[in-house]
From TrEMBL:
Keywords linked to the UniProt accession: Membrane, Transmembrane, Transmembrane helix
Domain of life according to the entry: Bacteria
Protein name stated in the entry: Uncharacterized protein
Organism phylogeny: Bacteria, Bacillati, Bacillota, Clostridia, Eubacteriales
Transmembrane segments: 46-70, 91-109, 166-187, 194-211, 223-244, 251-266, 300-318, 380-401, 413-434, 454-470, 477-495
Length: 663
């Protein structure tokens, strides 16, 4: 209940602060939740780097509340209430507040949980650690490598859960709040054009579904995901939409810089996304600014240079911070198993693109990428070529509905996005060559997921330009047509059988089983404890669930052969492991051959405090029973054992037994 109250309180603070600033700056209040939320996250980020994350979050709330107080004093209660009421009658802010409040209440009732693999390995685990530990996972990594994720999603989540009480549903609601703030910036239209604002907001909310390749009947995770894809796409498009409205205002630089910095801190690829946004902003100013091109050039370069510095500063600050607090190989800026620097990868990729020393693998991937643009589905209508055509049609409508200056703007922005998309496409070709195995690279692993955020932001920008076109009637009709097509295609080909509006209990069966077991173990575990997890027959799923659920440091296992004490040359580091006999290697896909003495030696080598046997089998029962208090059986419940040391008569003593509903 505390998370719901705090989430709704955050919405109230954002709405009131937006109304106050709107009255002072003569801006549509729908534009302000995005920079305010980004500013609060960045303030927390600065304090988090200094090791005082909770103080930063408290200060952010104090500043938002101060805006309320100042507004009440300067506008007086009646004027403040009038300002809030007037702004809430604007479509953008009302839809943002109403939509976000609806999701907070809905998720509180449904209690959705994470379902995607990467949420347990990185994107959900990172905010969980930040909320529970009150510090960046980089300085306090526990079960997460420092290089895995960037901090933006964790920061936004932390603002909604600053008290250390973790709830997955609140994390999902917080990220959706950020996404809706971005859509609100696109839908910030005057009250007299409220219908266009509503249509842009509705179309923007559907875009994550439109630019997807859904599996028929599958659960749609677009708004129930801790992954960075939705925040990245919305921040990329929302930042530019915000700029379109404030570009001539006094505080345009800072209002644009705040979400731009947060975008850069969202994912590693977002350094490129941030620079793309700066480039397109510069094109817009050159195309539609006042005066001759010569007189505009230096001011445009100065403003664009300032925004580029913001992007670079955000990117370097996180890189330097991770390198400072965890100076290990995990934080090194490298790509692929060869450990090449980004510069070496880019230089090598450009040479191969030009045909200089082109390798066969690169040529094959390049051919696959060329073919994929016309054949691989990235949206409900089909492949990337179809998506670009749909975006271009929207841009053409915006061009027709604009005046002379607006037409230059639409043309420059659309062509700028197209040029940068081609560069980004080539960049992903290079990454597939250097950063993926031969099988994954040639299969273009996660192709649609990598490119969908760009398409989504591109379309959101075109819808925003269409809604802001000078010829209101033509613009309104065109926005209505575009929104109608998006919604019709969504209902026709993309309406999921289940999504954020429905429960997903069937997806949580395995998770709930591990969670029940982990909760029993957590009664004796502490964050300083080191635990080795064994789950015979596991494919890593249960291991990663335990790594997420246990309030302890889960020690990595090994693969290969460790059958002689002191001889480790046939062993390699891994994450999860199954213990098997040498003659039974075919039983498991993942093999770690181990005998009783070497299990004890490995526990001592890794300084483990506990061993958790999630699931046993005949091999453990037959060979390892003498090492354990009470022995082992192949059908035993999940049991936590304390490791007494190599010299103990019985190395493993009983700590906790956890019964389970699922075996």
């Amino acid at each position: 209940m505390l998370q719901l109250a705090w989430g709704l309180a955050l919405l109230v603070l954002l709405a009131g602060a937006s109304a106050v600033l709107s009255a002072w700056a003569d801006l549509d209040a729908a534009l302000l939740p995005l920079p305010l939320l980004a500013g609060a996250a960045l303030l927390s980020y600065g304090f988090g780097v200094a090791g005082a994350l909770r103080i930063g979050a408290v200060l952010a709330f104090v500043l938002l509340a101060t805006l309320w107080v100042v507004g009440l004093v300067r506008l007086r209660p009646a004027g403040f209430a009038k300002a809030c009421g007037a702004e809430l009658r604007q479509p953008g802010l009302a839809l943002f507040v109403g939509g976000a409040a609806f999701l907070w209440v809905l998720f509180f009732v449904q209690q959705p949980m994470f379902t995607q693999w990467d949420e347990f390995t990185a994107w959900g685990l990172a905010p969980k650690m930040v909320v529970e530990r009150g510090a960046f996972y980089v300085a306090d990594p526990v079960n997460l490598k420092a290089s895995f994720t960037y901090p933006a999603t964790s920061l936004v989540t932390f603002l909604s859960q600053p008290f250390g009480l973790w709830a997955e549903w609140a994390c999902l609601a917080a990220l959706d709040t950020l996404a809706l703030a971005c859509v609100a910036a696109a839908a910030a239209l005057p009250r007299r054009r409220w219908y266009a604002g509503v249509l842009v907001f509705a179309a923007g909310a559907v875009l994550p579904y439109f630019f997807s390749n859904p599996t028929p009947g599958a659960y749609a995770t677009q708004y129930v995901s801790a992954m960075a894809d939705l925040p990245m796409a919305m921040l990329f498009g929302g930042t530019f939409c915000l700029y379109l409205d404030v570009r001539d205002r006094r505080y345009a630089f800072w209002l644009t810089a705040l979400p731009l910095a947060l975008l850069t801190l969202t994912k590693d690829i977002c350094f490129a996304y941030g620079l793309i946004a700066v480039f397109v902003i510069a094109l817009d100013q050159l195309a539609a600014g006042q005066g001759t091109l010569r007189t505009r050039l230096l001011p445009v370069l100065g403003r664009a240079g300032g925004l580029a510095v913001v992007v670079l500063a955000a990117f370097l600050s996180w890189s330097r911070y991770t390198a400072a607090v965890t100076p290990t190989v995990d934080t090194a800026a490298s790509v692929g198993s060869a450990g090449l620097s980004y510069g070496a990868v880019l230089a090598g990729g450009v040479r191969q693109l030009l045909g200089i020393g082109r390798e066969e693998k690169f040529a094959q991937i390049m051919a696959a990428m060329g073919d994929a643009f016309f054949t691989r589905r990235v949206c409900l209508l089909g492949a990337g070529a179809v998506a670009v055509a749909a975006i271009t049609v929207t841009a053409a409508a915006a061009w027709l509905a604009s005046d002379k200056t607006g037409r230059r703007r639409v043309l420059a922005v659309h062509l700028g996005f197209a040029f940068c998309f081609a560069a980004l496409y080539a960049f992903h070709l290079i990454l597939y060559h250097y950063n993926f195995s031969d099988v994954e690279g040639l299969a273009l692993k996660d192709y649609d997921r990598y490119l969908a955020p760009y398409y989504q932001a591109w379309m959101l920008t075109m819808l925003c330009l269409l809604g802001r076109a000078a010829h209101a009637r033509l613009s309104g009709a065109a926005v209505g047509g575009a929104a109608a097509v998006l919604l019709a295609v969504f209902c026709w080909r993309g309406l999921p059988a289940a999504g954020f509006w429905t429960g997903a209990d069937s997806l949580y069966t395995l998770r709930a089983d591990v969670q029940r077991r982990a909760n029993a173990m957590n009664t004796v575990l502490d964050w300083n404890d080191r635990v080795l997890v064994l789950s015979q027959g596991d494919d890593a799923t249960r291991w990663y669930y335990y790594r997420y659920e246990l309030t302890a440091r889960v020690v990595n296992g090994f693969g290969g052969f460790y059958g002689r004490l002191g001889e480790t040359q046939d062993r390699w580091d891994s994450d999860f492991m199954n213990l098997v006999e040498s003659e039974n290697w075919t039983l498991y896909d993942y093999k770690a051959v181990c005998v009783p003495a070497t299990l004890v030696a490995y526990m001592a080598e890794k300084d483990c405090d506990y061993l958790l046997i999630d699931r046993a089998d005949d091999y453990l029962q037959r060979e390892f029973s003498p090492l354990f208090e009470g022995g082992l059986t192949n059908d035993m419940p999940a049991t936590l054992y304390h490791f007494e040391g190599e010299d103990a008569a019985v190395p493993f003593t009983l700590a906790v037994v956890a019964e389970s509903e699922v075996q």
